[in-house]
Amino acid sequence: MQKLTGLIVAVMGGDAREVTLVEHLADAGATVKTFGLPVSGGNIIPCREPEKCLAGVQALILPVPGVNQYMQLHSAYLERPLKVTGELLALLPSGSPVLVGMARKPLRELVESIGLDLVELMKLDEVAILNSIPSAEGAVQMAMESMPITIHGSKAIVLGFGRTGQTLAQLLSAMHAQTTVVARDPAQLARAVAMGLKAVHFNELMNCLSDVDVIFNTVPAPVLDKDVLVKVPSTTLIIDLASAPGGTDFASAEELGVKAILAPGLPGKVAPKTAGRILAQVVPRILLQRVKH
Amino acid sequence: MQKLTGLIVAVMGGDAREVTLVEHLADAGATVKTFGLPVSGGNIIPCREPEKCLAGVQALILPVPGVNQYMQLHSAYLERPLKVTGELLALLPSGSPVLVGMARKPLRELVESIGLDLVELMKLDEVAILNSIPSAEGAVQMAMESMPITIHGSKAIVLGFGRTGQTLAQLLSAMHAQTTVVARDPAQLARAVAMGLKAVHFNELMNCLSDVDVIFNTVPAPVLDKDVLVKVPSTTLIIDLASAPGGTDFASAEELGVKAILAPGLPGKVAPKTAGRILAQVVPRILLQRVKH
Amino acid sequence: MQKLTGLIVAVMGGDAREVTLVEHLADAGATVKTFGLPVSGGNIIPCREPEKCLAGVQALILPVPGVNQYMQLHSAYLERPLKVTGELLALLPSGSPVLVGMARKPLRELVESIGLDLVELMKLDEVAILNSIPSAEGAVQMAMESMPITIHGSKAIVLGFGRTGQTLAQLLSAMHAQTTVVARDPAQLARAVAMGLKAVHFNELMNCLSDVDVIFNTVPAPVLDKDVLVKVPSTTLIIDLASAPGGTDFASAEELGVKAILAPGLPGKVAPKTAGRILAQVVPRILLQRVKH
Amino acid sequence: MQKLTGLIVAVMGGDAREVTLVEHLADAGATVKTFGLPVSGGNIIPCREPEKCLAGVQALILPVPGVNQYMQLHSAYLERPLKVTGELLALLPSGSPVLVGMARKPLRELVESIGLDLVELMKLDEVAILNSIPSAEGAVQMAMESMPITIHGSKAIVLGFGRTGQTLAQLLSAMHAQTTVVARDPAQLARAVAMGLKAVHFNELMNCLSDVDVIFNTVPAPVLDKDVLVKVPSTTLIIDLASAPGGTDFASAEELGVKAILAPGLPGKVAPKTAGRILAQVVPRILLQRVKH
Prior knowledge:
Shape of chain A: elongated
Strand content of chain A: 15-25%
Distance between the termini of chain A: 20 Å
CATH superfamily of the largest domain in chain A: NAD(P)-binding Rossmann-like Domain
CATH topology of the largest domain in chain A: Rossmann fold
Largest interface: A-B, 24 and 24 residues
Strand order of the largest sheet of chain A: 3-2-1-4-5-6
Largest sheet of chain A: 6 strands, parallel
Oligomer: homotetramer
Number of helices of chain A: 11
Radius of gyration of chain A: 21 Å
């Protein structure tokens, strides 16, 4: 565990993930001022007002989903939503790091306009790969809940073989699903072969659809369009893990009677504690690198 | 697929599993008379009265759970429960096979007193092993739904290394849980080692409990008694797969604040179609062996 | 580690396995008198004469292969072979345990005629299962050495799904060979399915032979006879792990140009230290149970 | 299989890999002129002189290792070595593709100076990943041959988690070695964790060395220097897969009594047919892309 003694950070908003993160930061020696989180204990200073929370800190940690379209802080515990404004953020020392999972454009622009140092955690390869573990399990859990058959012996297709696709395809194969990976990059197809998976180029996708129980999409592009969906048996389940709006033509799926589920943000939903531990593994190093001493 | 042409069998009561079974038997060429099942099609003769269903058949297939304590047929579809009586069963030719998953004592005695040939499918090693697949997945699904962490990286204990224990421990290990098998038989412990699992004798159980996220019990004996439960962290989840009443002292668990779930009969609940296919794989061979020609 | 303090045992003959065993027994506190082994150290008393070695001991451990057809002790280190006679064994106290891997009939009869307690270690399920690990690896190593292709992607058949067959088939599958298990017992076939392996009844063997790279036999019966061998491509490799004379018609194989290797006793050959550790895990418990106090 | 009808290519020198490649290209419809290879059959034109071999072709395929330091063609079959010269290569049409596994600097400069299109196959991610399969198996085979213990249960370290490291670490783990990955890049460490492997930063390497049976190095830099080697038990085996001169201080290893083996070019040695098939999978696409029509 990296020692954070002497560091003072604010954590505002969030859910069970941030609870785990705050406890870890405090254990590591940081002083953690919080707003809107049910935490307490040594090194933790819960604040009732956002301004107080930011007073004297060296860095701000926002929740993984950041803010909604109204610039309101994502929060599982606050009764009244908090709007994130320039005045509020300006309480931070200039150049301070502001950590967030993903930032929509308005938040990014706001943070940068004030001269703060925005860090989007989900863009870090390390975080994205670690998050692929709860994402993959969450996807499998959804398939288990929605299918009348076991994963074992089922015919599964995984579209895309990036960070989430790799973890998911290996998990399905380990559970003895007949797993086919569909990807475009020859190097990714070669990696799938090395892992013992059946690998197929996207050009061949149409030939794989007549006998499939479940399709998992990880590609953030319209890959499951109507032309593809008409080839899929109506009993097939589609689980789309790509960030909203996903890669599935959901309207066509419904029309064709194919059950399709958009499932973004699984880590925080199915395994908040694991998701919090992933933050707790990465955030200390980033704070030590970015906070000016 | 084994041909069943010429065979006439009755299937009474049941749930989605029996639907799958009936369709398979009819596909294989048998004439299937049904009572209380939403099926139809070639070779299938739905009957409104149980007596008509039994007329002229060579074998009777009862649902997996058989009858309840009032001798009422297990059924997911019948509006009024049907009591299974000696008069009804006596409509079958003497010596006919009567297939059922598990028979409570009264049903077993009734069937045998009439001179019919009772076959309890769940007692067959083959069926029990195949059913261990949906049981293991169902147990994992329950753990996923109840835990705030992923299976990946979790610390899991599997008590018992028989038919279900083997399948479950291998599944957990394949999903990268840190899996410890606890068993008594040196040969079973050796098999666990050969499978790459950590294996511990039951005598050492007490030393494994201080840091465990989930315990799965498959032993039909009181192994998780109060003495054991007091050693378990209160955040630990217990899933008991042993047939009722399980191997857990549930009252003590509740008292100690340890969440414990009794989860019998998982195959029919979490993967009815797979459970039906398992029946469909085994039943034809048994019919061909047992029906007198 | 089980304490053996106070125990006095003789270990006569043997190879690297017995070296590992002797060291372990001495570490556990036993006094170990040895004949024909390059060992020394605390608690170990090397003896130049077999009679001295047996004086005052409570148990005798013979090498895994026991004696040859001339009753000569198996030994990797003795310059002159030692014949095991009744007079020699009679130096042991009546009823003393005599441990050996496998005993041919003459040895068994001799030991029992003197009133000693013969224990054949390889007949213990636990030992046979643990030994299946080096057997399986040794078989894979032989296949690697003899084939111009990788195990990954190769088409492999495993005949028999007992103790060695299970370990070997799981190893091949883990290495991403396309593995087919051929067995007769429905429960064994079900177990293979649960492990995610392709399982085929022996009746169907003939249909699996046209496209196979390597066949591993574990069945101690003539399963690979001429009728089967004529169906096998001449490039196929056969590795027969069944105890001599194996299950292959080697003459026919040679005639047909199919390379077939009989490979008994792999653990001592490919991984003598692991094989010794397996003995070291089992022997202490047996000594504690069998030696009279 | 991609159709190569109409294409005329030369394959000069090589070993069993090129035999497999030539057969595949001819099967796909190409006319293949060969020099120094024991092949024949439809579409294959063996030539006795290198000049005749090059006449009229559109592309040249050299052996995987290319030429040695004297510019002599690598060949397993030629009695007299062939020197590759500018005059010879100039027989090819300007701009023709020249495929080779790896080109030393002189060959690269020669080919480019004549205006030919050099393609180094081993630099393609796809080829390197596919070759990691036989490399990893070859490394495991060497470990099996050199160690008195099984891979199962052994303590293994894999240095580097690139293309070969990933495949090798997954193979070892699948064989139930206790596998530790040592790498530097946080994203690679995260991927190792996602694969269920123990992952350690290079900074922590020194703490992992006291109890290890085998170390596989894949890093082409001096990572196993004297400071590291003194910490390693003398029974440890080192297998260095990095391209020559490897990453091990072999002199120090010998001095310290640690067995260390440099093992480059494993695919062609342990599984030439698999290595040939990998070429056969990649070369047709490259020919179709690069040959001018």
